[in-house]
Amino acid sequence: MDYQLYSDDEDLDVNDLDNEKVFNAGRSSVIFAIDCSQENLQQTPDGNEGSYFNQVMESIHDMYLNKIIVSNKDLQGVVLFGTEKKSNSSDFDNIYTLLDLSMPSIASITKLKEMKEVTCQTFTDEFGLKPDHRISDVLWECLNMFSNCKHKLASRSVVLFTWESNPHDNDSNAALRAKAKAGDLHDHKVALQVFSFNPEFSYDHFYKEIVSNPEDLDGVVDPLGGVVNLYSFLVRACDKQRPVKRVPLRLGKLQISVGIYAPLRRAVKSSSVNIDQKTNAQVIQRRRLVDARTGDILLPSDVKYLQKWGGADVVFEKEEVENLKSLGESGIEILGFKPISKAVKRWYHVRPAQFIYPDEDQVKGSRTFFKALLKKCHAKQVVAICRFASSTRSAPRLVCLMPQMEEVDAESFHQTKSPGFHLIHLPFSDDIRHLEIVRGRKEVNEEAVEAAQAFIHKMRFTYEPECFDDPALQTHYKNLEAMALELPGPEPITDFTKPDHARIERKAGEFLEQFKSLVFTPDYCPHATAKRPGASGASGGSKVKKIKDTTEIDLEDYVKNNKLASLTVAGLKEICARIGVKAPSRKADIIGRIEKQVLSSSS
Known about the structure:
The protein is α+β, with helices and mostly antiparallel strands. The protein is about 30% helix and about 20% strand. It is built from 16 helices and 16 strands. It has helices at about 40, 50-70, 105-115, 120-125, 135-145, 170-185, 230-240, 320-325, 340-345, 365-380, 445-460, 470-485, 500-520, 555-560, 570-580, 585-600; strands at about 25-35, 75-80, 95-100, 155-160, 190-195, 245-250, 255-260, 305-310, 310-315, 330-340, 355-360, 380-390, 395-405, 405-410, 415, 420-425. Helix 5 runs parallel beside helix 6. The radius of gyration is 35 Å and the shape is extended.
């Protein structure tokens, strides 16, 4: 069996085949609990975007669509409270489970599309409004939805939208039950976040005692007042970053634990699956090894691995292969420190960088050690040069740890940069290529340089990667969406990678013409195709490959000295016709038949 002993582990796949523990395996899950109060269902003060309820539903709808592209295995659910109509697992009053905790589907997206355009009157006619609800029942229902889920969950979150700062102002028992149920959520590792569109909303009256992050809410009033894009805000709030892997970080005899995160990963089209032709059910493929002689199914212990070495067959047991593949300890080991300006060059781009953050759950004290190292590296403007291996079987790489301190927006107080180290991959000496570029003899006209500077200045624009969607990916999913939702056709997309020629001409056309006149000849045409140089010779005609006259060759000499391969297929077929042999289609077979006929005739 052909077996590759070593792997570079380029993608940091969490499904490594070694015996290391895989952390945070499972799916992300989030439940949106929405207060259906009169204030949330009425038109917003500006009246341009419907109600606050419509805005929330539109954002959730877009998140469902985004999940299909980014992570279609994650789970979402929607719970409405404050409704007269009820539908939930525990038969609580005034609670309606709109969408169960499940993966995005056509039915759920269609339902959300209807809800994002609902008016207060139509909502009241269908569900009714009754503000007599208990927050403890809402949290209980959310916990039941998580408990009844059959999938393994890596993270659990509840995002609650409310209007009242203190929903149980006159009922202390209801407030105590809500706080107790919030404690149950925290014990089950469920993160609870609360938001409100009420400009007079304050966490201090009640919700600060039940949310998961009370220390971040000091003095926060009107939490959604400064939010421009609710969808982007919810994506950040719900997207709990999971480490690709957790590895040890060693400095001498000291060791802590860190999580490796992937801030950049190329989005690709979802892979196709095989389905049954009659039922459309997904077909699961299983592979079994069978003995070719007896037909018996082989167990893993029955399989051995073979490689040829020096003409001999070398047989390995599975355990021997695993030992061969082990290249040492996994993790990040600091070798030393070097100034940033000398260690990191812009052309040292081996692969996208990762990000590391301490993991206090695995090794106590990791956060304190990490914070001290981060502050000192940032103050000294140095990077840590390290040996990095994501697993015991992956080839080690040289990396450097680039410090990044936390940055917070002065107005919204939202974190714009996280504190931690960027793990930047460095090249080995074998990877560096020394290029020798021959300098041109013709000097550049200074006037042309100034003209180039002028149009470059005019064509500057603010570039942000978030403004450019992949047109191929968007087209693919718009087509799938149209087919799945039975729409008349896919929604058109805007390809922002195409240049705006009219805008370029308006802003820099004059300078581009000036540059053109200074650099190119008057007969310059950018669309003209270059002429191929003619073949050498007086006639100037194209060179034609000559076929050797097969009647003049010594056939026995050609067979004896293995020269038949130098002839063309047409020439070999002429020889076959001459000696009375049927010519097959492949050249090698023709040569074989000629050799056989000539050798048999000579003997």
